[in-house]
Amino acid sequence: CTPNSSLEKNLISSFAFLLSSQGETDLSVLSTLLSLPALDELEEFQEVTDPLSIYNALMHFKSFLGKGLSTLLRDLLDRSRSKISESWPKGQGERSMTKLAWSLLLAAGDEDIRKEVLESVNGPSMSLAHAALFSLQPIDCEERSLGMKAFFDRWKDRPMILDTWFFLEASTPRLDGLSKIRQLLDHPLFDSTAPNAIRALLGGLAANIPVFHSLDGSGYMFMADQLMALDKLNPITA
Description:
The protein is built from 14 helices and no strands. It is an all-alpha fold and about 240 residues long. The longest helix has 18 residues, at about 50-70.
């Protein structure tokens, strides 16, 4: 469809007001108002579902918002830092809004923010570490690789936490995504008998839109093969 510049301008103006000092002051509410719908929500509005097109449009829209709201998002990050590490339930709004700001700014190509996001992977907050990794995930950059390595090195002896790493690795969009997932299946720390580990890895594949929904059908065929093999060992998990 043809871009509606008037609608885009009004949208940025509305979001900018919400982010300003005269706008919404409750950061939990603000992060909810500015959060974008998930892919499965967007699919409900399509007569014919095209996952790749929806994914690309969503990434483009995040970049559009990140660029248009860059200054305000950076200001909000500055205001949130003093409370971001407070123990739950304090700091919830700051953490939620920080996660959203990171995601939008990184999608917009803000290279300066990558260092801050990477530092949070090794910080004391598991919520922020997860937020940092998920924010970096769509961005093909050195910080993404460093963050994933740092998380693995820190939690490699904790299988339940390491499941998150397997999910993130499997769901990260890469040109060689399917090859990476095959490597993960043979990883020495991947427990092919543990239902949670299987769900993390194959669930990561299903969440990897460019790889799972590849136009050549390779993602679907790979998943089908894995499920048929799993069905012989653990039908309930399959």
